[in-house]
């Protein structure tokens, strides 16, 4: 499964990068395959391990902000591994062909 999520503190002003870094640090320390871009962090693994990381990432932000927003999207596809890479490679292959 791949989960793309965004966690942001609310009520702390416009500059939230430091808080987001706390969440991303949790993801990177998890050891699960992950990528972070300007809008989301994606993480790949089994349901329980991915959701545990998301929960801990939210808790890291919540520890410093009284209110937290979480947006989450999941691609649940049993038997697929390395989806973070293979899905992008498929799109790039089609782009190169056409």
UniProtKB/TrEMBL annotation:
<dbReference type="InterPro" id="IPR029756">
    <property type="entry name" value="MTH1187/YkoF-like"/>
</dbReference>
<feature type="domain" description="Thiamine-binding protein">
    <location>
        <begin position="3"/>
        <end position="92"/>
    </location>
</feature>
<comment type="similarity">
    <text>Belongs to the UPF0045 family.</text>
</comment>
<dbReference type="InterPro" id="IPR002767">
    <property type="entry name" value="Thiamine_BP"/>
</dbReference>
<dbReference type="GO" id="GO:0005829">
    <property type="term" value="C:cytosol"/>
</dbReference>
<dbReference type="InterPro" id="IPR051614">
    <property type="entry name" value="UPF0045_domain"/>
</dbReference>
<dbReference type="Pfam" id="PF01910">
    <property type="entry name" value="Thiamine_BP"/>
</dbReference>
<protein>
    <submittedName>
        <fullName>Thiamine-binding protein</fullName>
    </submittedName>
</protein>
């Amino acid at each position: 499964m791949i989960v793309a999520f965004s966690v942001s503190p609310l009520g702390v002003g416009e500059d939230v990068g430091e808080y987001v870094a706390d969440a991303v640090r949790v993801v990177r320390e998890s050891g699960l395959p992950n990528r972070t871009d300007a809008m989301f962090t994606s993480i790949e693994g089994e349901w329980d391990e991915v959701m545990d990381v998301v929960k801990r990432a939210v808790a890291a932000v919540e520890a410093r902000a009284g209110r937290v927003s979480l947006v989450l999207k999941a691609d649940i596809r049993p038997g697929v591994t390395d989806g973070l890479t293979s899905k992008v490679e498929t799109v790039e292959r089609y782009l190169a062909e056409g």
